[in-house]
Each structure stands twice: as structure tokens, then as C-alpha cells.
């Protein structure tokens, strides 16, 4: 059995914080302020998104992904930004006139994912969900909402193509948007869970920090008396 040799600060001689704990001690206050500012800029109230909850979730995710992350500081902000964007998206989906935005956005995300080597998983799954939901709509609703909001046809041209009145096209499109909005909102939690499962599956496995795996290992280390970010330090294992 092996144990990790305790690393001490060269300034104060206290035992250093290591790995995720090091990043949490150094970055959690900064990240909380960042999330608060970002949420406020997007009009997301704390009743919908609590910065403390976001920080907790982000650091739990870092604990899983740390071994494959080269820049934890940037990674933390990127994931936190996605959490804010997700909350903003849920808030928009609850408004009656937002579903049309997701039709256009969904198409753009699907196209960009073909060339993006690292697409946003949540956005991609949401975009796929949009098209699945469109396929389940009644025929006239599906035709009206697709031709108007995806193909960009004016209602007069849609009415001529479908052989119905322009006002009827508007009724079908309104009902389709309402159904899509409700379905998107009710399915978003499942999308989020699926995205997290995919991320976990894609995260390369690494042996645990305290495993007996060679004579040396590395850890991110940090002490409150430091002014900078955590440092990546080589450490040793002592055999019992």
C-alpha cells in the first residue's frame, strides 16, 4: 500500500492543498463572482441559477475530468459559462415566443457540429431533440413551422404551397411552436443527464491519486499564502 508524501509550502511550511482541492481553494470565490456577473448580464436571476450551486457542480465535474484537463482555470470558466447558458436557455424556453429561435439555432448547431472537432454536447443534443420533436408534430403543424421558421418562406408562399389560407398557416405554426416549447422544457433535464453521461464516457480513465503506480506522480498544489494559481508539482509515493 502507498501513501502520498505530504507537500509543504516553501513559504509558510503548511501542508499544501492538492489537485481539485487546490483549485477550489484558489478559484472558488473568483468563479462565484464570474458566474454572478455572467448570469446578471443574461438576465438570469438567482432564483433560477444560484452561483454557489454552479460552483459546486463545476468542481464536482472537475474532479472527474481533472486528469484530462491541461488548463483547469480556463476549463472551470468554460464549464461554468455553459451552466449559465443552459439556465438561460431553460428560461427562454419557458416564454411563449422562444421556440422559433430554437428551430433556427438547432439547424445551425447541427451544421456546425459537422465541422467542429469539439462540439458543445448539450447544444448538440438539444438540437437533435428539436428535430425529433418536429417529426412528431401533426402533418400541417410540421409543414407550417418548418417552412416558415427553418426554410424561411413567407406565409403567403406557404399558404399557396399547402393550399390553405395564410391565417390558417399562422394557426398551425402557433400550435406547433407551443407544442415544441412545452416539449423542450419538459425534456431538458433528460438532455442534461444524457450530456453528462456522454462526457463521463469520453473522459479518459486515469489511476487514482493514491494508487501504487510507479515511484512518482504529479499534483496541482496550492497554499493560501501564494498569490498565484496552483502549480503542477511532481510528488513521490512512500511505501508502507
Helix and strand content put the structural class at alpha+beta
- Residue runs with pLDDT of under 50 for 5 or more positions: 207-213
Largest sheet: 4 strands, antiparallel
Strand order of the largest sheet: 1-4-3-2
Which descriptor suits the 3D outline?
Answer: elongated
Mean pLDDT metric:
77
Radius of gyration, in angstroms, nearest whole number: 24 Å
- Count of DSSP E strands? 4
Distance between the termini: 6 Å
Residue fraction in strands: 5-15%
Tell me what the structure shows.
It comes from Dactylosporangium sucinum. This is RNA polymerase sigma factor 70 region 4 type 2 domain-containing protein. It holds the Pfam family Sigma70_r4_2. Belongs to the sigma-70 factor family. ECF subfamily. Helices cover 62% and strands 9% of the residues. The longest helix has 37 residues. The chain has 240 residues and is α+β, with helices and mostly antiparallel strands. It is elongated and about 80 Å long. The chain has a 4-stranded antiparallel beta sheet.
